[in-house]
Design a protein that fits this description.
Length: 284
């Protein structure tokens, strides 16, 4: 690969039927500090990373109020506002942060309203294009949590609604409460428990956002063999594998480095052979 590819080479996908984005996004969790807590080591580098991914044709950025907390959203606004017309920012609410690497679900309607309105302020948006329930709170009925988000949607503060970290049954329940356009679950070469949800996403025209998409990419024999064959990194191979696995998948790899962002986007130019796909699917 010589010239730097852009995210446009991945093709496009429709979010909610009316927001068309390139099918390689950016996850903004890692532009925060260690443990997804506090400021990043270099705010300048974080801002440079955000601006570089947009230059590379990425027009879907996924974040959450709990990343930092608040830091990721603030950096996005600082780096990119006023936003390009085609940029879709997705954020999430429903988790609170008592400390580094600590996550506690809070699906109470009062908290979700405060979280959403805080995200609107930090992101400098009048309407959030995609707002996702970050995690189902076992102490709050899903109908109450999503009912609050549905109210915010009716008020025009949210355009589309997504869910994250859900089971198949929870997705079906969510769809009975409010129209759902996306699912964000953990999915990568070593963790494919959410494959049934990808199948449902294809069936129901939902977008599937795999989090931790490149985790443990460098520990798989078939991935390493494909990387050597194409002259690329293991992480680039698993991104290419995700893109080829389902048209419903919108990968959102994250990084705090402009150089790593360039490598991630370059993965869109990799075409895996059927044999390479089979080898990765069967053993990784």
């Amino acid at each position: 690969m010589n010239a730097q590819p852009t995210a446009a080479a991945a093709g496009t996908i429709d979010v909610g039927g009316d927001l068309t984005v390139n099918r390689l996004g950016f996850g903004a969790m890692r532009i925060t500090g260690s443990g997804v807590w506090g400021d990043p080591p270099s705010r300048e580098q974080a801002i440079a990373t955000l601006r570089r991914v947009v230059e590379l044709g990425v027009n879907f950025i996924d974040t959450a109020d709990s990343y930092g907390p608040s830091v990721s959203e603030e950096l996005i606004a600082e780096a990119l506002h006023p936003y390009p017309d085609d940029l879709v920012i997705a954020t999430k609410g429903g988790q609170v942060r008592p400390g580094p690497n600590r996550w506690v679900p809070d699906g109470h309607p009062k908290h979700l309203r405060e979280a959403c309105e805080g995200s609107l302020r930090r992101l400098k948006l009048e309407q959030i294009p995609l707002y996702q329930l970050h995690r189902v709170d076992p102490d709050v009925p899903l109908a109450e949590s999503l009912g609050a988000i549905a109210e915010l949607k009716n008020e025009g503060k949210i355009r589309h609604v997504g869910v994250s970290n859900v089971t198949e049954d929870q997705l079906r329940e969510a769809q009975r409460i409010v129209p759902i356009v996306s699912v964000q679950n953990r999915f990568n070469v070593t963790d494919r428990q959410s494959q049934p949800l990808i199948d449902l996403s294809e069936q129901d025209d939902l977008v599937f956002l795999p989090w931790a998409p490149i985790q443990q990419a460098d520990k798989r024999v078939a991935v390493a063999a494909a990387a050597e064959n194409h002259g690329v990194t293991d992480r680039q191979i698993v991104l290419a594998w995700l893109l080829a696995s389902s048209p419903a998948i919108l990968p959102i790899p994250g990084t705090g480095s402009p150089q790593h962002a360039e490598e991630n986007v370059a993965a869109v130019a990799i075409e895996l052979s059927p044999e390479e796909m089979r080898a990765i699917n069967t053993g990784g």
